[in-house]
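S., here's the first fold you wanted:
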Amino acid sequence: MTSELQGKRIAFLVAQEGVEEVELVKPWEAVERAGAQHELIAPEEGEVQAFNHLDKGSKFQVDRTLGEAKPEEYDGVVLPGGVANPDLLRTDRRAVRFLQRFFSEGKPVGVICHGPWTLVEAGLVRGRKLTSWPSLQTDIRNAGGEWVDQEIVVDQGLVSSRKPDDLPAFCSKIVEEFAEGRHEVAHAGATANA
């Protein structure tokens, strides 16, 4: 265990169902190894049902609900993918507001695979360069973002990757960005749809 993130608290924001298990677990393990405390945040109490692509995977206990969690209590946030997870999460106004407040404070965010759908809904990709699962590129461009096909992209604290194969680079980079902390530049989109 290293101490890069000692004293830091990282939120993992997911829907109740549909998160891609490996995209939750591997980043979770990375921040834990770096010394951070992590919390699983979901819309409701109870458990989150993870998936391994289209098959049900493990269940994970929710630490805090969206109604209880406050962005100012966290030093970073991770948005794992899975097709259903971000699609459900982006319809929850509490999740959208949580992310808008988080971005307005310039805190680092890690997002992978289909995860950027929630950022699109929150109006947070305008003027940013990021990557994702390829099927999201039109959504990102239509929302004013610059989509690129790269393993890892960092834009002022926003770390994005395309797929589970990118997890080693993604995990390393989110730890680095979470250790760095807040970024001075907050994009205008951070308050959109508030």
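And the second, which I think is the more interesting of the pair:
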Amino acid sequence: MGHGRLMRRAALFVLLAALWGCSDPEPPAAARTGDMAVQETKVRKWVEYRGGRMLWEFRGETVRYYEDPERVEADGVIVDFYDDEENYSSTLVADFGKIDRKTSNMEASGSVVMTNVDGTRIETETIFYEDEGERIYTDDFVTIYRGNEKLCGYGLETDTGLNETRIRRNVVAETVGDDRG
């Protein structure tokens, strides 16, 4: 082994030893608060039923289960919503999502896109789902594409099928190109 190679290995060892012994790295926020996941899985599905009817299906690339408060958190979230006859009505896609396991309310954040069967698309950064009223809402800036219309504004209330949609304030509407070719 050459002298230069030996010196590089010794320098690397000293550097690693110094880094190892200087201080313990700060644990993640969850560990500092004692809020550690009790289970973590890859590509997991969570389905919500009410009165025998499927309401939604939540999937995540990495899913974590917590006990206090009882919740599920996931990265790479896809949620499919179903109507009263259990027909598919819309899909929500986001970078991150969580479900309150007691109420079945959900929150999704990070590049949120929600699309229904008619092609209506909503884009925002954070969106909430209230399970009891099957209502979608946010206070964030939203953009809605419906046919050749584009609506922008702040705050949104809608149903899971995106049929009765309302932007709360600062609404701007414009006509966009016909994407039917």
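Why I say that: The longest helix spans residues 3-22. The two ends are 67 Å apart (CA to CA).

Talk tomorrow,
H.
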